[in-house]
């Protein structure tokens, strides 16, 4: 960094107002660029320090910095934190009554604010726009900018209106920020916000202190307890579950086993939620079991682990949630357990989701990418960063690097399984899920097998050389490789356009060996 920048106004504000010695990463470059009146698109991982990138220019440039954020629940806290530093900040959102709003508007018009946080839907109200017209604006900051991307995992229609900012106030610089953007999302942000002339600042998305691990799910709560006892005794952490019911059950299970844990989900009343959140921030070593709603914008530096007991819906979501671990840079764990049931359940949710086909295709693509990450035999970090368009070398700090998975040639089992599906369709026009198909392969005469005469099929019992869990692994990996698909309410397994290559013997199917199976094999050898 140039010697002269030492005394720049930005550096002075950093020290005087925020009490920090130096900028991190590309913060200073971004800040100087925006102070100079330029537009900026900033991609920086969680904890990278995005807030200062718009807060400092707002303090240095004349006028009020307008921050657009969808995180309404956090605005009060953000504003309180800034006020504690002596920054004149306020917010406008739907949680306020008329009186509170009027007060903030008066402060804005009187030039008594440095920063004004706005929920995006406020900009649909003409009153807000004319308010902004009457004050002096120093910049627009568009936080969580990926929300403007329809291709992204968290699209919000209100964000589409933000292209209007530039049309209405062309001279005001804009800075769009996000911690999660694939190449496609980045491109979409740029075009939807008409930021073609902006400078782009793309930080590395790598979080080297986070150890990524993905395990097959058998007894998730037990597996979690084992992880906490052996590696994270007394540590603060977040456990994510998909449903409120499993949040409750898991929290209770942990408490029964002597671990300080509290539930957090939208079904709890808001006072209890707030109480649990503030305990998490203040206390050492509390575990919060939550649905994904928990953790956005929460700045707790010493979260030592993030555990997922259910499969996240997208790689972006997974990256964002795991990113809440280890903001202090210390070693942390991101642990995920997933099983075939997760895939079936999510497919079902996608099939039943509202919205058009394009929307469903998008959700499917997100799920497929997540599955591919789970079943990869490559370094998890390499895959994760590649998803965000960044190249890297094997990290040495993920499960596949630390205990390289053995692979095996799964071509024959894949052929057996796919041809079973072919037969079922041909003979009955009926569709069946993984359970039935595995029963047939294993030669089990269950009531349902007998009912449909499946014990008379030529494939009945041809898969007895593998166990149930191994067949489930085969199904998951075929799904992850796009050689099989799930559809409908009952998790019906169907062939894909590429299944034929395997059936014809034109394609080999390498598979990741189940760690449990590998362990069993090793044990058998040693005894
Ligand atoms: P993000 O929004 O990118 O997730 P934040 O802006 O919340 O990150 O910053 C994460 C944490 O790092 C905050 O506690 C913030 O105060 C701190 N921080 C940001 N920039 C600096 C800096 N230059 N020096 C020290 N701490 C910083
Ligand atoms: Zn690795």
Could you list some keywords that capture this structure?
alpha/beta; 7-stranded parallel sheet; 6-stranded parallel sheet; disordered C terminus; binds adenosine-5'-diphosphate; binds zinc ion; DNA damage; ATP binding; DNA repair; DNA binding
Task: Summarize the model shown.
The chain is 43% helix and 14% strand. With 527 residues, the protein is an alpha/beta fold.
Bound molecules: adenosine-5'-diphosphate, zinc ion
The structure class reads alpha/beta
Main sheet? 7 strands, parallel
**What's the shape?**
elongated
The number of helical runs is: 22
Beta strands, count: 17
Oligomer description: single chain
Radius of gyration of CA atoms, rounded to a whole number: 26 Å
Mean pLDDT equals 90
The proportion of residues forming helix, as a percent range, comes to 40-55%
Q: Can you put this structure into words, describing what you see?
A:
- Helix 7 (163-168) links the parallel strand 5 and strand 6.
- The protein starts with 8 loop residues before the first helix and ends with a helix.
- The protein has helices spanning 9-16, 27-35, 50-60, 72-84, 98-109, 126-134, 163-168, 183-192, 220-231, 244-256, 270-282, 315-322, 340-351, 357-375, 380-387, 399-402, 411-428, 434-442, 447-451, 468-480, 499-503, 515-526; strands spanning 40-43, 64-68, 89-92, 115-118, 137-142, 174-178, 199-202, 210-216, 237-240, 261-264, 287-290, 305-308, 332-338, 407-409, 484-487, 492-495, 510-512.
- The protein is elongated.
- With 527 residues, it is α/β, with parallel strands linked by helices.
- Strands 3-4-2-5-6-1-7 form a seven-stranded parallel sheet, with helices on both faces. A six-stranded parallel sheet has the order 8-13-12-9-11-10, sandwiched between helices.
- Bound molecules: adenosine-5'-diphosphate and zinc ion.
- Zinc ion binds next to helix 15 and helix 16.
- Residues 20, 23-24, 27, 44, 46-52, 179, 299 line the site of adenosine-5'-diphosphate.
- Belongs to the helicase family. RecQ subfamily.
